[in-house]
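Sanity check

After download, print the first record. It should look like this:
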Amino acid sequence: MTTHPKLRVKALSKSYANFVALADASFDMREGEFLTLLGPSGSGKTTLLSLIAGLAAPSSGEIWIDGRNATHVPSKARDLGLVFQNYALFPHLSVFENIAFPLRMRRRSQADIRQAVGDVLKIVQLEAFSERLPAELSGGQQQRVALARCFVYQPSIILMDEPLGALDKKLREHMQREIRRLSREVGASVIYVTHDQEEALVMSDRICLVNKGRLEQIGAPSDLYFTPQTLFAANFIGESNLLDVEALSADTVSRHGATLRCRTPVPIAGRRATLVVRPESLKLLGPDEPAENIIEATVEDAVLTGPLTRVTARDGRGDLLVAVAPSRLGGLALAPGTSVRLGFDARSAVALAAEGAPS
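Expected structure tokens:
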């Protein structure tokens, strides 16, 4: 028995005259997976979603859904659910009828509709609001109705395009948890578009990072955060210290004559490179404390942010470094001008080809 991926995108491209919106995108999506398309505005992530949804036609490439070539299948025949930022609820229909609408369009029986809508109302925790109109609901409740309307008819894949963009920070964080909970409870396969890196890290099984119309990297959130494969990935997801170095081998680089140990996800020996070290990986060392890699620097600022203190320091070459350390009672007592030793392990540092370096 052959098991097909839920979705297969093969060498998919989209051009408008001389502008390439998406170039040669290929990936597979698993059944029940929460896959996020992440990238800055104009990167091509919404173009990719539109092609999958059938709202635009590709210039080349193929789209397979449940083992069937859907490249030229009309959108309405692809068995997809769509959730947009503006909710698109019917203002004159109750919560119950908004959710029931796709089932009525599919000519389901009244008994089936009552059962299915009742079940999904419990999942989104809106049973007490079933007879209310959308205008009588909060923004978060309206979003849950939009999600319920999509979940209720169990489409093969649910597509979400920046669905939380209009919500404030607190409600947005609450709805992130709600969407993950709902998708897991119903076993939904979800493709989610966002430009918010934190949202992608919190919600995703895997992230597909899109940049300038190309897939930059695809993998689990931990893969993109701890093992970025390009400088764009290192810069876009989280904060990084970026140090100019020369790659000596698969696990060593040279920086101003000092040898540092690290990891290199792709072969770059003999080339100019950039060493990527996350702030939380830089440890403030004691006077005689050993470490695999050590950089001496002078503190410029130390800011208490709650449980963590953010320390900025400049080394003898003028490079600014950022370290994040646990806060202690009374603070870290790191006044500007204090000399510090910053240490990091080889496994927490990644060397990548420098921008503009010859391949």
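If your output differs, re-run the checksum step. Summary of this record's structure: The chain is about 25% helix and 35% strand.
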